[in-house]
Inverse folding.
């Protein structure tokens, strides 16, 4: 099982995806997702220029050793670009190992701890009727848990609508507007209306997307308590971990954090002090199966569960890796699941199933995803950025 080919494939069927494909001398292939939304080509360069030369000739079976070599051997540690590249190598190696064993990856990770993974989707609308329609559509699609995002009176856009970025060759980031006080006034009434319409059973989630100060987050968590949220996500910018102590003192609304984290070190304080309830890390952005598993095992000691990031900018390869890990661990909480577009599903042939609101990675050996290189070649990279926010006075704000 010597690695003798490593290709970095960039394709943009519905949006940009970066995939690492490793091939061994005996013909086994493994895929890893290296997509970093809006910064895709930085990971491509890191892989092609710095990582691929280290992989050729190595034993594909030595997953932990390869991980440590790429992490420690670089000297410059952590960071989203590095960790996305390491994640892609790691998942590709697990894919190869599981194929060599003739097993779906979750079996190598310890076997299934459940029959399927509860998943949530994104409902959004600029006003209540639009939001209710979106919730109903998600329920028709089978979702048994739903994230609620809504327009705020006076603001131009609704955060939470999936976008593929601006698909023009010379695209620049879109500017959005933000007003925290208007948002805090508006949101509790939205959740009250959703609860009245859809009843007490439906698990509801909300993402504040790093926009609040600690005291604003504390107030929001408190004001949403009557509506029994499954979680409030990214209530404050995650860099300031101590901020969560203040939030926790004031609210029992469960908190989810971590989609922009890359390593266990980012979680050290918030797990040890039990400042969160769900770990939002994605396999793709947290150093792969090898590293995210360590984060989740650490979290398990504190009854903190997984809530892996699963937006459409994580490719089907990254999603498949998440499903195998989520099926195997004991402390699975929920999986975010936004369906990919039809072109993406043609480029990436997948084995996962979606039934009764539950995801399952399927029984194909490996992670269960194959990349159709000819299809991928039809969709070249398109420059695309995430949007950013400005307040009414022009100040740049967290998006
Ligand atoms: C969001 C994401 O899914 C989520 O919770 O926060 O849509 C996020 O904005 C994007 O994945 C960024 O790439
Ligand atoms: Mg989020």
């Amino acid at each position: 099982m010597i690695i003798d080919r490593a290709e970095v494939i960039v394709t943009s069927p519905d949006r940009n995806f970066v995939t690492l494909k490793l091939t061994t001398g005996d013909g086994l292939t493994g895929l890893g997702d290296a997509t970093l939304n809006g910064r895709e080509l930085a990971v491509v360069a890191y892989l092609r220029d710095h990582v691929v030369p280290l992989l050729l000739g190595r034993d594909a079976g030595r997953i932990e050793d390869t991980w440590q070599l790429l992490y420690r051997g670089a000297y410059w540690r952590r960071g989203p670009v590095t960790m996305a590249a390491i994640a892609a190598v790691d998942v590709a190696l697990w894919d190869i190992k599981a194929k060599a064993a003739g097993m779906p990856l979750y079996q190598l990770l310890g076997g299934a701890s459940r029959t399927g993974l509860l998943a949530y989707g994104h409902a959004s609308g600029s006003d209540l009727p639009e939001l209710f329609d979106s919730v109903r559509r998600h329920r028709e699609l089978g979702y048994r848990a739903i994230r609620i995002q809504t327009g705020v009176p006076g603001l131009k856009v609704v955060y939470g609508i999936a976008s593929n970025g601006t698909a023009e060759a010379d695209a620049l980031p879109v500017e959005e507007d933000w007003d925290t006080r208007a948002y805090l006034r508006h949101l509790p009434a939205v959740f009250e209306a959703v609860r009245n319409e859809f009843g007490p059973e439906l698990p509801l989630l909300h993402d504040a997307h790093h926009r609040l100060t600690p005291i604003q987050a504390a107030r929001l968590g408190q004001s949403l308590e009557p509506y029994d949220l499954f979680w409030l996500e990214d209530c404050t910018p995650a860099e300031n971990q101590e901020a969560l102590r203040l939030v926790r003192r004031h609210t029992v609304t469960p908190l989810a954090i971590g989609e922009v984290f890359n390593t266990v070190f980012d979680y050290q304080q918030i797990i040890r002090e039990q400042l969160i309830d769900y770990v939002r890390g994605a396999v793709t952005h947290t150093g792969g199966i090898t590293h995210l598993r360590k984060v989740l095992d650490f979290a398990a000691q504190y009854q903190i569960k997984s809530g892996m990031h699963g937006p459409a900018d994580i490719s089907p390869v990254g999603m498949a890796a998440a499903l195998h890990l989520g099926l195997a661990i004991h402390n699975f909480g929920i999986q975010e699941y936004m369906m990919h577009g039809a072109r993406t599903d043609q480029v990436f042939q997948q084995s996962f199933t979606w039934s009764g609101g539950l995801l399952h990675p399927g029984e194909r050996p490996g992670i269960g995803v194959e990349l159709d290189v000819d299809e991928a070649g039809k969709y070249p990279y398109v420059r695309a950025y995430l949007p950013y926010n400005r307040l009414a006075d022009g100040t740049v704000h967290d998006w």
In short: The chain has a mean pLDDT of 96. The first strand starts at residue 3 and ends at 11.
